[in-house]
From TrEMBL:
Family annotation (InterPro entries): MAL (IPR013295), Marvel (IPR008253), MARVEL-CKLF_proteins (IPR050578)
Keywords: Lipoprotein, Membrane, Transmembrane, Transmembrane helix
Molecular function (Gene Ontology), one example: structural constituent of myelin sheath
Annotated GO biological process: myelination
Protein name stated in the entry: Myelin and lymphocyte protein
Membrane among keywords: yes
Membrane-spanning residues: 5-21, 33-57, 77-97
Domain MARVEL stretches: 1-100
Family to which the UniProt record says this protein belongs: Belongs to the MAL family.
Topological type in the membrane: Multi-pass membrane protein
């Protein structure tokens, strides 16, 4: 939960600063790269730990329908977390390319 709220808040702040035109100085591309690599590390660590916990739900599937529903929800959360990690990583790569070209 910390990772998604952290990334949402800082991405929203960065977007507002970008819309206001406050990102014209030379320090912003470096900050953009740093933020997105930190976001990748946070999302990757939470994705791997959530996938590890989901493996334990698989072992207790014989206990009932509530465990199956929780298992399915955890699978979808793991998939979406890895997709978010991939998207942040791609944005970090594009940020590095933009930073090097400026």
């Amino acid at each position: 939960m910390f990772v998604s709220i952290f990334c949402f808040v800082f991405t929203t702040l960065y977007f507002i600063i970008y819309l206001a035109g406050g990102n014209q100085s030379s320090v912003w591309p470096g900050l953009d790269v740093a933020y997105h690599f930190i976001a990748v590390l946070f999302y990757l660590s939470s994705s791997v730990s959530l996938a590890y916990v989901t493996l334990f739900y698989k072992e207790s599937l014989n206990q009932g329908n509530d465990v199956l529903k929780s298992y399915q929800e955890n699978i979808s959360a793991v998939v979406m977390s890895f997709v978010a990690t991939l998207l942040y990583f791609l944005h970090a790569i594009f940020s590095v390319l933009r930073w090097k070209s400026s």
